[in-house]
Amino acid sequence: MRNLNRQRDIASLFSAKAIKALISKGVSGLPASSRNIEHLLTNRESSSVEHLFDTAYKELVASYRNEYVYKNAIAEKIIRGKHRFSKSCHFSSEFRVNNSIADVVIANGTTSAYEIKTEYDSFERLEGQLYDYFKVFDKVNVVLPEKCLDSWLPRIPCKTGVIVLTERYTLRTIREAHSNMYELDPNSVFSCLRRDEYIEAIKNQFGFAPQCKPVDLKKACRTLFLTLNSEVVHREFLNALRSRRLRKEKVELIKSAPPSLTSVLLSTNLNLREVETLRAVFSGGMESIQHSEA
């Protein structure tokens, strides 16, 4: 139990709460206990914040592959690696769809949802989760541990993509996801759009925005949106997600930050001041940061 508590404590380093604490208080503000931070450092005088996070992450990868490890593997391999932080590529974590929350959503050439099932998870809600995702995304994937593949694969619908996180920390596609573009539910897709996005979609398709009271605008736009065919609905949804671009300053921050923080930095809302503070934190040594607020 003590070892599990330590691993969970280390895992708490990779959260929006920890990032905000790092900005406001430096390393001393991190949610993990000082003992659990210190045991990660082989040489405190020369260690950096990057060393702290990367060493902590290596321990998670080796002995406690929680949901964050899977999210970050996707962010590292696909967003940082394959797409190299392309301006046209969108990454979301915890994306709400009807009664479910997709662990990761990526929009680039198409829309893809990733449902993560770690060795600590059950399949109890998977059927309902996939049902919701199929209404909104072109490609739907389940990501699971390599060692669980044989026993879990028969429980995953055939049109769902299957990806494993290998023991060597690589993502291996076992089965490609089938396209679901022509079976989307326009009402569910509309519910995923922000106000400016559904107004833009209506303008694109109808050449105008409904002229009505502000309180009636969403209903009027929804009524028009529901008349669109599935392919057009998907195109507008894809364009909307790709328009949610990261600020240039944040992209530069993520590029310079420890790779272990790729997912949490992509998912955490940061203003320009916070971005600049984090850049300074990552470029400084542990001791100077720990005492910068003294």
Would you kindly provide a written description of the structure presented here, covering whatever features stand out?
By secondary structure, the chain is α/β, with parallel strands linked by helices. The chain is 49% helix and 13% strand. The chain is built from 15 helices and six strands. The chain has helices spanning 2-11, 16-25, 34-38, 49-63, 67-82, 126-134, 149-152, 186-191, 195-206, 214-225, 230-242, 248-256, 262-267, 272-283, 286-290, and strands spanning 90-97, 100-107, 111-116, 139-145, 161-165, 171-175. It has a six-stranded mixed sheet with strand order 1-2-3-4-5-6, with helices on both faces.
Total helices: the number is 15
N/C terminus separation: 35 Å
Helix content: 40-55%
Low-confidence stretches: 42-46, 287-294
Average residue pLDDT: 90
The topology string of helices and strands comes to: HHHHHEEEHEHEEHHHHHHHH
Main sheet properties: 6 strands, mixed
Which geometry do the CA atoms define? globular
